[in-house]
């Protein structure tokens, strides 16, 4: 019997090492470049952000959310409009007329995480984004030079849903495919894409197996054309999730008043006009008689 428990313990240890190795691989990608995370709703995009932040344990910025949406680990708020090199826009770069701007020392080596980019930076409203944030794409492109840091975005839906001026400049792409929820832990399946073209098509990796010379050539050509495509499983403990998983419920709905909560639980009390006396008459009846 003891050998059974030893084998189970070894299997759990191997599984843990494998999952954490995958998480370290993802965290390393976030450390070295701008990452985009996308997938269908409630699949685990913010969970992936949370896992990476838990792994890196570094101070970071996050946009648009109040304190009840916070990934922990010294997360600070920053506005989308602050991600800019204004008043410089692309015309300034093309013409070689750069306006000197103030540098914020506190942003050095501090990454920024933008959640729900499909809502705040939607591609179908390019014309509005171009007017509101004309300098953000430049900041996004050169943030490594400016502050030795990165910007990461996640969002619902297809990869094309995000503002094209950001998604086509990213360094790495992660598609969140699905999750499995168990007591106390959530497993998440992710596909890593090295190239935007492969990510846009959500290609699957080509299985290597035992290949002959011709198949090996096709395999190498597939990887050369599409870049690295890598399926990864990670896990996150539920108690290590710090953010509000239903933030938009708080954002859009009014808080119900206390009296409304009480009135829905109790039957309405009779009014003074409908209160009966000991003769069975109501106050309203008395008024009619009078």
Strand content: 15-25%
- N- and C-termini, Cα separation: 92 Å
Kindly provide the radius of gyration, computed on alpha-carbon positions and rounded to a whole number of angstroms: 28 Å
What is the oligomeric state here? single chain
Q: Can you describe this structure in just a few lines?
A:
The chain has helices at 2-32, 45-56, 90-95, 117-120, 126-132, 136-147, 164-167, 196-200, 213-226, 247-252, 258-265, 283-289, and strands at 35-39, 60-63, 75-78, 112-114, 151-156, 172-182, 185-193, 229-237. It has 290 residues and is α/β, with parallel strands linked by helices. The protein is globular, with a radius of gyration of 28 Å.
Element layout with pairings:
Layout: H1 2-32, E1 35-39, H2 45-56, E2 60-63, E3 75-78, H3 90-95, E4 112-114, H4 117-120, H5 126-132, H6 136-147, E5 151-156, H7 164-167, E6 172-182, E7 185-193, H8 196-200, H9 213-226, E8 229-237, H10 247-252, H11 258-265, H12 283-289
Parallel strand pairs: 1-5, 1-6, 2-3, 2-4, 4-5
Antiparallel strand pairs: 6-7, 7-8
Helix pairs in contact: 1-2
Describe this structure in words.
- The longest helix is centred in the first third of the chain and has 31 residues, at 2-32.
- This protein has one domain (12-262).
- Helix content is 40%, strand content 18%.
- β6 and β7 (185-193) form a beta hairpin.
- It starts with a helix and ends with a helix.
- The model is unreliable at 258-276 and 282-290 (pLDDT under 50).
- The chain contains twelve helices and eight strands.
- Strands 3-2-4-5-1-6-7-8 form an eight-stranded mixed sheet.
- The chain has helices at 2-32, 45-56, 90-95, 117-120, 126-132, 136-147, 164-167, 196-200, 213-226, 247-252, 258-265, 283-289, and strands at residues 35-39, 60-63, 75-78, 112-114, 151-156, 172-182, 185-193, 229-237.
- It has 290 residues and is α/β, with parallel strands linked by helices.
- α1 crosses α2.
């Amino acid at each position: 019997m003891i050998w059974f428990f030893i084998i189970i313990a070894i299997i759990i240890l191997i599984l843990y090492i494998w999952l954490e190795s995958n998480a370290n691989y993802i965290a390393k990608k976030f450390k070295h470049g701008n990452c985009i995370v996308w997938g269908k709703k409630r699949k685990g995009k913010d969970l992936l952000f949370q896992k990476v932040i838990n792994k890196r344990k570094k101070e970071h910025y996050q946009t648009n959310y109040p304190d009840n949406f916070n990934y922990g680990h010294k997360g600070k708020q920053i506005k989308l409009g602050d991600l800019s090199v204004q008043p410089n826009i692309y015309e300034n770069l093309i013409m070689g007329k750069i306006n000197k701007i103030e540098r914020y020392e506190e942003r050095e080596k501090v990454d920024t995480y933008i959640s729900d980019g499909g809502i705040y930076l939607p591609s179908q409203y390019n014309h509005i984004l171009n007017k509101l944030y004309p300098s953000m794409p430049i900041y996004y492109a050169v943030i490594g030079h400016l502050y030795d840091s990165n910007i990461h975005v996640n969002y619902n839906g297809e990869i094309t849903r995000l503002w094209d001026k950001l998604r086509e400049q990213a360094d790495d792409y992660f598609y969140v495919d699905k999750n499995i929820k168990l007591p106390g832990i959530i497993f998440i399946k992710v596909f890593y894409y090295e190239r935007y073209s492969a990510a846009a098509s959500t290609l699957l990796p080509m299985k290597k197996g035992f290949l002959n010379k011709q198949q090996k050539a096709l395999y190498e050509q597939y990887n050369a054309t599409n870049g690295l495509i890598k399926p990864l499983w990670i896990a996150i403990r539920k108690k290590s999730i710090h953010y509000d998983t239903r933030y938009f419920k708080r954002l859009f709905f009014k808080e119900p008043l206390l009296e409304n909560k009480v009135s829905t639980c109790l039957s309405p009390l009779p009014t003074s006009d409908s209160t009966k006396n000991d003769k069975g008459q109501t106050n309203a009846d008395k008024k009619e008689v009078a």
